[in-house]
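Troubleshooting: if your tokenizer reports a length mismatch, compare your output against this known-good record of 201 residues.
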Amino acid sequence: RRFLDPQVVNELIGSGAIDYRAQATTREITVLFSDIRGFTSLSETAAPEDVVALLNRYFTRQVEIIFKHGGTLDKFIGDGIMAFWGAPTAYPDHARRAVEAALEMSSALDEFRGELGALGAALDIGIGLHTGNAVVGFIGSDERLDYTAIGDTVNSASRVESTTKGLSRILASKTTREAAGEDFEWRDHGLHRVKGRGEEL
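Known-good structure output:
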């Protein structure tokens, strides 16, 4: 339930589709990273309890959207979120679902900023999406296991999110665009070389 919509978890457990002892597998997935812009300056001026309360409200809304579109919550990274689509449920339209979630997450931020008034004026987010193969499974120590995805696809999605700064609130790689299809109104921002990869995304 930490990772998926509780109803989906019940269905997967009931069907035997989730087994924490199972070996990790390679899956094609779409990975989403989002990060808050302007949060550092806000955290330096607001009271700590107000910062935590604001962040919790923001995370709650965004995670609801991720679950709504069938995504898996991987982790929170400071004021950022990592999620992916395509595992443990292998949706054939995982890229489309991820793009739909990104668009709704962007709209939810605008509503959230409106509620915050002057406090939310400086807040923005960057969302990066990338599709490809990744190793997915329960990974960790004997004391603690996390259901997560690792590999180049994950690293590339994080780099795509970093590229959003000064360019676009949402950026999808070429592979995500091709996998998601033409149901969306795409805007071409060109190909970009990201850190750690020779191929442009």
